[in-house]
Amino acid sequence: MDATLTNFGQTHFGQADLGDARRTKRLVRVADRLAAHPAGSLPDKMQSPAELSALYHLVNNEQVTHASVMQTHFHRTRSAMLDHPSPVILLAHDDTDLNLTSKRSLAGVLGPLGGKNQRGYLCHNSIALTPAGEPLGLANQILHLNKRRRKKTARAVLRQCPHRQSRLWMRGREAVGDFPAGKRVVDLVDRGGDTFEFLDYEHAHDYSYVARAKSNRTALVGHQEGCEANRKVKLFDHLRCLPETGRRPQSVPPQAAKAAEGARPGRDTELAVAWAAVTLLPPAPSRARGEHRQVPLRLWAVRVWEPGPPQGAEPLEWLLLTDVAVEAVADAWERVDWYEWRWPAMEEFHKGQKTGCHVEGPQFTTKQAMEPMIGVLSVVAWLLMYLRWAVRAEATASEPAATAVPLGWVLLLSRWRTGAERPDWTVREFLLALARLGGHQNRKGDGLPGWQTLWKGWTKLHAAIRLATPPPPGSCAQR
Length: 479
What we know:
This protein has helices at residues 8-13, 21-36, 42-46, 49-59, 66-83, 155-160, 168-176, 196-204, 235-240, 329-340, 342-356, 367-392, 394-397, 407-418, 427-437, 451-468, and strands spanning 88-99, 111-112, 119-129, 135-144, 184-189, 208-212, 218-221, 232-234, 246-252, 267-280, 297-305, 317-322. Strands 1, 2, 3, 4, 5, 6, 7, 8, 9, 10, 11 and 12 form a twelve-stranded mixed sheet that branches. The mean pLDDT is 88. Helix 5 runs parallel beside helix 12 and helix 11 (342-356) packs across helix 12. By secondary structure, it is of the alpha+beta class. Strand 2 (111-112) and strand 3 (119-129) form a beta hairpin. It has 16 helices and twelve strands.
């Protein structure tokens, strides 16, 4: 852990080029305030009229854009990817709807969303992770405005459309850039990214990926030319006919009820794995939905599935595509392990954006003000995600808490929790006490706390620190 917790604003926004150093200082103060109190409306977060007014002046300045406020965080994330000792870094890509339909003054500039008459941004996020699941930061974020297409638009016209949503997967990866030899960055994409256009882009740039397959394409068996390579198969049918090569236990977490389906209980089960080398053939130019080369793609397909699901339960199955060689069962499980981080990472981050930081809540009347605000709140959402990881990670659990936060915070929280000052507390002890402050009971069956409990405790701790520390004379907090 580093200055992320104690010097959040300076660490993630301090080098932003906003045309005036005073604006950058104001952005740093705003970010620190939002990190201390991520929930609620902007008046709740800022807690003083002067701070709120400063925020409004900041985001309404034309020099303060989404790109300019995010540049420091993006640069920090890239540096963390390069500096991390692991030779493999995972880059999870996904998008979420930011529904701003209620902002009537923005109706003319927002794009249509999936819901009927809904308008807003399609927010495409790229999050860097280590193979152990540590969230290193947002590597890129795109605020995309969909365009309504006319009915019966020719396929060739759609392919060339610069606003085509399927371009986001390439744009997100392109923005992150290349990495030196010895550092493999593996793009993780769900079925939305499984297009021949994206896979061809990855191969053309010598990038690595694991993608969940969406289409039961026609493929050739193997990579070598010859009789076997000329045998055409349906990809999914071929994978489901392969014999399993290994099994391992798997714990399936419970799922809350959704609009289209009921809640699902958690269970302990067993997964099997199989893989095959295959060659994907490009769609004919007349049938292509994207822009790509007319070359075959040699890759590996991995199937992981649940051979014996409980009665009435939908069996688990992933069909994955990767350009990273799979030559043994350990390789296949490693690709599965990489992909397995994509869903919880993106799910927690999007929940942090919407539930934790209320990114859809600000009542701004201009696109100019809304976009940088989404960017700052998204970095705060990453902080919530990072806190959740830190309380679970063995790598940080035993570190002295005083190396991650000021000693005064440790003494204050330990005095509240135990009745005595404990300067020797570890990071995990500090975060568990923070969760207790947020309402977590720390009982044996409760498990480790999530970010929602942690940020509640985080907010209370900052409120106590703020009350105990008088503001400097002449500061906006006294106005």
